[in-house]
Amino acid sequence: MPSEESYKVIEGDWKDFRFRRVLPADYEAVQEHVAQNFVRDENTCKLLGWNEDFAADVSLVVSLFLPEGLSFIAEHIPTGKIAGVRITFHHKPDSSFDGVPLKSRNSKILLKLVNEIEEMADVVNKHGIDTWAEFFIASTSPDFRNQGLAGEFYDRSINFLTAEGFKHALVVVTSPYTRKATIKRGFEQQSRIDYENFLDFDEKTPVFKKEDLTSEHYAMVMLKTL
C-alpha cells in the first residue's frame, strides 16, 4: 500500500471539492459511479451503448484495482456527493485481463481495443520498461463537469505516483479533453487507432458505423516519464 506521506501529496481541498484516497467503505459507491457515469458517457462506451452487463463488467474490473490504494475520489464538500473518480492501477509484467469473467460483448470489444492499442505502443520494447502506473478511468458526474476536476486529478496523481517511486505513467485516451490534458502535462503519443479502422473479432468487420463517427473518434496511448 502507498505511504501516508505519499497520500498527503494528493489529499486535500480544492475549490468546492475534497480529494482523498478510496477506502474499502467507498468501493460500492465508486463502482456505481463508474457504471452510471463513465460507462454511459465516455466516448467509446457511448458508441458501444450502455447496458447492465456492460456496466457490471467495468465495475468488476474496477473492483480488482481498488485494493491497490492508487485510486482517488473527489467529493463535493457542500453535498458530500462523489463528484469524480480516478482509477489507477500498477501495471506489472504479468498483468492481464484474460481471466476476468466478462459477460458483455461491449466490454470484450472495449478490452480488445485497449489490448490492441497497447500492443501497438509496445512500450516494453521501445522504452525498455515493463512496469508503470496506468490511468484506467477518469469519471466525473454531469453536475460537476467542466470545472477542472480531470486536470486536477492528473496533477495530483502525477505528484502522488512520483512520490511513490513510479517512473512512468501510461493512459489510453479516447476524448479530446483527455488528449489535451495529457499533452499539457508532458505525455507523449505512443500509438493511435482511428475507430473507422477498428475491426471486430473476425478482423474483417468494422466495429463502428462510419455514420456514427466523427474526426474525434480515435484512441491513443500516451506515456509520461515521471
Could you give the topology of this structure?
Elements: H1 4-10, E1 12-14, E2 17-21, H2 27-41, H3 43-48, H4 52-65, E3 72-76, E4 82-91, H5 105-121, H6 123-127, E5 132-140, H7 149-163, E6 168-173, H8 176-184, E7 188-194, E8 218-225
Parallel strand pairs: 5-6
Antiparallel strand pairs: 1-2, 2-3, 3-4, 4-5, 6-8, 7-8
What do these coordinates show?
- This is Dopamine N-acetyltransferase.
- It comes from Orchesella dallaii.
- The chain has a single domain, classed as Gcn5-related N-acetyltransferase (GNAT) (Aminopeptidase, 3-Layer(aba) Sandwich).
- It has helices spanning 4-10, 27-41, 43-48, 52-65, 105-121, 123-127, 149-163, 176-184; strands at residues 12-14, 17-21, 72-76, 82-91, 132-140, 168-173, 188-194, 218-225.
- α1 (4-10) runs antiparallel to α7 and α2 packs across α4 (52-65).
- Helix content is 39%, strand content 23%.
- β3 (72-76) and β4 form a beta hairpin.
- An 8-stranded mixed β-sheet has the order 1-2-3-4-5-6-8-7, with helices on both faces.
- With 226 residues, it is of the alpha+beta class.
Structure at a glance:
This protein has 8 helices and 8 strands. The protein is of the alpha+beta class. The chain has one domain: Gcn5-related N-acetyltransferase (GNAT) (Aminopeptidase, 3-Layer(aba) Sandwich).
